């Protein structure tokens, strides 16, 4: 019997014939943490007696969640992280560099690698044919020290995507549609393996969006084959030599096959307070929105900025709708600046934040008031997620977000094309 | 044998519910963070829960963010185990890693306030109030070893490595 992508990568990294259900010890090619999870990991590492870093060049600390620091407590957490990274020769991406998941795909992740991050959206790097999964602080602390971790090889769902997106419909809409079908725990412990003609023609930015959102269905990983699009992305990032081809075997075994034809998809919105509470944007017309947020590891890339800029250029945000935009990384910000998008945003009345997680995590930079509603391009709309349990979060694509900022109410972006 | 009262929660309790993001700055001050445990779902929980009590939840307990602080502050509140229909995978690993047992069974048969007796080794949840008994699903061997040692840190201190051959 052939192997799925998850089985192939975990076989290679564990030196065993890894099959769904097996427990393997896998070599960890990249381990990373962010400022919300690293301090606990460092305390656990000290408690373990293993104050060592097996492979410091492939251990990365990101200061992206509370960045720049809003409180003395968090500033002290940042000091702890910086000191540890310097002392142990580990990599540090300090304030202003951007969101961990974006920098991981820009600068670190490669096909065939096992990537462990102390952040649930670590799954993003699966779009580069890596087995990338989120874990807690203690698991990542031990992975840093030993250079390996234990994993249960997941069963896989095959997600076959066909058809062409209508104008105004994007990978984010596909993602919300998929999660709406299978539910917030529909893929718990499983790997979602994406394939089909639509995926074959999809750019890396859209693949990252799909991979990023798989954890919102409970998945352990979202994995893509590597192809010419993957190779060109790695070449553009200066890592063309690290491209390797990964495809599942034709006779690999899948627990389920989910087929989606995107031709009939329409712009989708997740309603409060669950990602799988999905409706069509056009059916929510009239729902007033006080704040729009465009950014995050889901939709903060240059392609997302381009979609938003195209819609916002020459227009103004609605006078009662605040518009906050945070490019996912320094590279994205610089490219968006050079393309003129940042000027378009500012002229439209947007507040542009430094690269980082921005208001997504509920710490700062856009906490909502009681009863306020936000439409965000993020991945999660749980109650209290953006810092106030009395507020309401809707999720949509950058196009839906930009259209909503202009109209002041949830708007199908096709109305403004 | 663990014994305590059931505190009942619904489906899809997220780690944002358990350890709200607005208290992010307290993550290096866990006793303070623990005061906000589950406050948006049940504001009385922290004042009412007693050492030994159980959190009994529906599906997908602990979904969302990987913040291990969620599992840590549940344990700090004295909760002796989580009993749920299912738990999200990162939370599952985190709970085991910090020495907080998780039992997977049909929690519909448990009501808020029921007295429970839990046999971790046998995976049995006995409802003392109703007299019914539930059986938990089996864990992988590596998880059982980590549970036996009381978490991943004591496990690693003893074994120095993953020992699952």
Description:
The complex is a heterodimer of chains A (417) and B (165). Chain A is α/β, with parallel strands linked by helices and 417 residues long. Chain A has two domains: 5-261, 2-Layer Sandwich (Aconitase, domain 3), CATH 3.30.499.10; 270-416, 2-Layer Sandwich (Aconitase, domain 3), CATH 3.30.499. Chain A contains 14 helices and 18 strands. In chain A, strands 4-3-2-5-6 form a five-stranded parallel sheet. Chain A has a five-stranded parallel sheet with strand order 16-15-14-17-18. In chain A, helix 6 (171-182) packs parallel to helix 8 and helix 11 (302-312) crosses helix 13 (341-347). The longest helix of chain A has 17 residues, at 72-88. Chain A starts with a helix and ends in a 10-residue tail after the last helix. Chain B has a single domain (2-135), classed as Aconitase, domain 4. Chain B has seven helices and seven strands, in the order βαααβαβαββββαα. In chain B, strands 4-3-2-1-5-6-7 form a seven-stranded mixed sheet. Chain B has helices at 15-18, 30-34, 45-48, 69-76, 89-97, 141-149, 152-159; strands at residues 2-8, 54-57, 81-84, 102-104, 115-119, 124-127, 133-135. Chain B is globular and about 40 Å long. The two termini of chain B are 30 Å apart. Chain B is of the alpha/beta class. Classes of the chains: A alpha/beta (417), B alpha/beta (165).
């Amino acid at each position: 019997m052939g192997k799925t992508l998850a089985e192939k990568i975990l076989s290679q990294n564990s030196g065993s014939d890894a099959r769904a259900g097996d427990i393997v010890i896998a070599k960890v090619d990249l381990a990373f943490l962010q400022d919300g999870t690293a301090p606990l990991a460092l305390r656990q590492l000290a408690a373990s007696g293993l104050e060592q870093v097996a492979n410091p060049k492939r251990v990365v600390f990101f200061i992206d969640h509370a960045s720049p620091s809003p409180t003395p407590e968090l500033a002290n957490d940042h000091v702890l992280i910086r000191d540890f990274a310097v002392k142990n020769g580990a990599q540090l991406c300090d304030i202003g560099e951007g969101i961990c998941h974006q920098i991981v795909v820009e600068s670190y992740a490669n096909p065939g690698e096992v990537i462990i991050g102390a952040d649930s959206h670590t799954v993003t790097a699966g779009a580069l044919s890596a087995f990338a999964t989120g874990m807690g602080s203690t698991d990542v602390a031990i992975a840093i020290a030993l250079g390996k971790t234990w994993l249960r090889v997941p069963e896989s769902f095959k997600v076959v995507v066909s058809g062409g997106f209508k104008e105004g419909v994007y990978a984010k809409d596909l993602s919300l549609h998929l999660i709406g079908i299978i539910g917030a725990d529909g893929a718990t412990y499983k790997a979602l393996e994406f394939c089909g003609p639509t995926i074959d023609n999809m750019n890396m930015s859209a693949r990252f969006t799909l991979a990023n959102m798989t954890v919102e269905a409970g998945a352990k990983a979202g994995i893509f084959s590597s192809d010419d699009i993957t190779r060109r992305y790695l070449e553009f990032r200066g890592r063309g030599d690290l491209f390797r081809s990964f495809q599942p075997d034709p006779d690999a075994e899948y627990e389920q096959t989910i087929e989606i034809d995107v031709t009939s998809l329409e712009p989708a919105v997740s309603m409060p307070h669950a990602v799988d509470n999905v409706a069509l944007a056009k059916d929510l017309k009239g729902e007033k929105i006080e704040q729009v947020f465009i950014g995050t590891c889901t939709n903060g890339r240059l392609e997302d900025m381009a979609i938003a800029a195209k819609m916002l250029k020459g227009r103004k945000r609605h006078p009662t709708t605040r518009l906050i935009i945070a490019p996912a990384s320094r590279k994205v910000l610089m490219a968006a600046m050079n393309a003129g998008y940042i000027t378009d945003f500012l002229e439209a009345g947007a507040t542009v934040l430094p690269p980082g997680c921005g208001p997504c995590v509920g710490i700062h930079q856009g906490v909502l008031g009681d009863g306020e509603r936000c439409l965000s391009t993020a991945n999660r709309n749980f109650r209290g997620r953006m810092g106030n349990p009395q507020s309401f979060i809707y999720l949509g694509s950058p196009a839906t977000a930009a259209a909503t900022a202009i109209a002041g109410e949830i708007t199908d972006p096709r109305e403004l094309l | 044998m663990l014994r305590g009262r059931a505190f009942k929660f619904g489906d899809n309790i997220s780690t944002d519910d358990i350890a709200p993001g607005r208290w992010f700055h307290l993550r290096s001050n866990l006793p303070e963070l623990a005061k906000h445990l589950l406050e948006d779902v049940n504001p009385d929980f922290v004042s009412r829960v007693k050492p030994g009590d159980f959190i009994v939840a529906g599906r997908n307990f602990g979904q969302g963010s990987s913040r291990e602080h969620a599992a840590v502050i549940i344990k700090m509140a004295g909760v002796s185990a989580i009993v749920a229909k299912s738990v999200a995978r990162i939370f599952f690993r985190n709970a085991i890693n910090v020495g907080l047992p998780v039992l997977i069974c049909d929690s519909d048969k448990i009501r808020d306030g029921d007295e429970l007796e839990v046999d971790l080794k046998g995976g049995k949840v006995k409802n003392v109030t109703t007299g019914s008994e539930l059986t938990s699903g089996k864990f992988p061997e590596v998880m059982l070893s980590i549970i036996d040692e009381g978490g991943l840190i004591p496990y690693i201190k003893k074994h120095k490595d993953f020992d699952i051959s």
